[in-house]
Each structure stands twice: as structure tokens, then as C-alpha cells.
Amino acid sequence: MRLRACIALLLFLSACATPAPPPSARGTRSQRLANLERAAKLPWTDGGRCVVREASQPWPALVEKCYRTLDHDRIEFHDTAGRCAVASVGAGAMGVGFCVLAAPEIAVGAVIVLGVVVVGVAIKEAMAAYELRHSYPEEAGTSRGTKVASREAEVQRKPKLKPEPAGQDWQPPVPPVPVDRTGRVSCEPVPVPHAGEDVPHNECADKFPPNRYPGMDVLVNGIRFDALQVGVRVLWEIKTHRFDTYNGFIQEREIEKEIVQLDKERDAALACGYDFVVGVSTDAHRLALLKQEPTFKIVVTGCKR
What we know:
Elements: H1 2-17, H2 23-28, H3 31-39, H4 49-54, H5 59-66, E1 75-77, H6 92-102, E2 111-113, H7 121-135, H8 137-140, H9 146-157, E3 190-193, H10 199-207, E4 216-220, E5 223-225, E6 227-228, E7 234-238, H11 248-271, E8 275-280, H12 283-292, E9 298-300
Parallel strand pairs: 7-8, 8-9
Antiparallel strand pairs: 1-2, 3-4, 4-5, 6-7
Helix pairs in contact: 1-5, 3-7
């Protein structure tokens, strides 16, 4: 209870102690980016994945969620301001360390990191993605990307000529293809919301590779992929069909359709220097694909529907 009270106090102090930025600063620097930059100076045992997940929260809330993923063997906490003594009562060293780190401003000498900090992979990629979205707002569909919003609204207003399929086969309007400064299709990964509302499929895409951008697909070379794997240049296409339940005729048609799609995705990935892996739920699905195209890299995820 004392630790929770300390957390609440720090959240209040964060709101009171931080001066309101001028209008120009609000437009160029978000809380998320500020948290990522602050966390980049610390060592994390998970590459910063927890930080990226919680970066939109106030800094004390982020510290509460991710404190245990710090590399505590490389950090020393010193309550130089004398404000965290109460945190040690009933909470031990964790209370003092948390209180020092979660303060609205960190006093000089309060947090000492031993050795050189290598920015966590996930934090570095999230900061790069943030800069990309704000360099090309229309492509990433940010708040300033009014053309994207208006284009999607126009699509929604058009009458539907035929019913749309449900599940993971449904594809929403795709944002404009990312391009580089020369006007060519870009190989830079651009996170976009998962296609459709197939929850089991999206959960599999986030957790199995695992996905660098949970909750997001990624656009590379004009193609939407289900996931970009953490720590490596590998793009994924995830299939969670109940393939084993289909009759023989349906299975053949499904494989024919998937081969065309996967060939296109693999070509786009390889052209940009990424590897390409297909995740399927069952071994029967894997064998059926390999029978038609043995050069595919296919992994059985075991994801259920």
C-alpha cells in the first residue's frame, strides 16, 4: 500500500513539476518520444519491449510496469534528494529504486549506470518509427495525415457491391505506399494497424514471431506483412486457417491462392534485404504448402482458433 501511495504521489508531482511546454513544443515532442529517449539511457533485460509497450503512459506509470525488466546488476540508486525514505518502509530496496527512478526529474547522481548503455533494440526501432511517421505523416496516417483519413472516409461512403468476407481474408483500405525521397517504393518498415478484426490471428502474429510492433502490421516495399520479428530482419505471414477441417477440393484451392500471395510477399521482402517466414497452425498445412513450393520457410505455430 505504501508503494502504491508513492506511485500516486509521483504521478501528481509529475503533473505539477513539469512546466507546460509552449504550443510549438507540443507539436514537435510527444510524451511517448520523451519517455523513449529517457528510457534509452538505461539498460533493459528485454531489449526495451516493455518500455515500447508502455511508452504512451506517464513516466511513473511506465516505470511501475517495466521496473522489473531493468538490468538491476548495472544500476545503483541513491536517494540524494531525500524524498524516497518513505518508500523503503515495507517495500525494501525496490521501493527506493522505483521512487528515485520514477521522480518527475532525476537528481544528479541519483541513478548511476555501470558500463556503457547500448540502446535496446525495441526502443531504437520505436524511436526510428516515430521519426519516420513524423517525417512522412501522410504515409503513416498520423493526426496530420488528413488525406489518409479523408480517403478512408470516402471508401466507407461508397456503396458496397458485394458482401465482404469475414476474418483474416478481409483487407481494409491500405495507406499510401511509403516512398523514399526519390519517389521510389521504400524498404523502411512502416507500422500500420492490423488488418481486420480476427483476434486469434492478430494475437498469433503479435506473440509468435514475436512482433516488433504489437497490434500492428508493417508495410515494406508496398506490401503489408503480419509481423516484423524482434531483433532480426525477418517478415512474417501468419495463417491460422482450420486447414485440416477443409475437404480435399477446398484445400487445393486454398493452397493455390496462398502460393500466389506468398510468392509476391517473399519477393517484396527479399528485394529489401529481409528474410521471409510463413507461420501456419498445423503440420498438415505446412506439408501442403511445401508440396507445391518446397523453397518456402514455414513454421508450425500451433496457434488455435
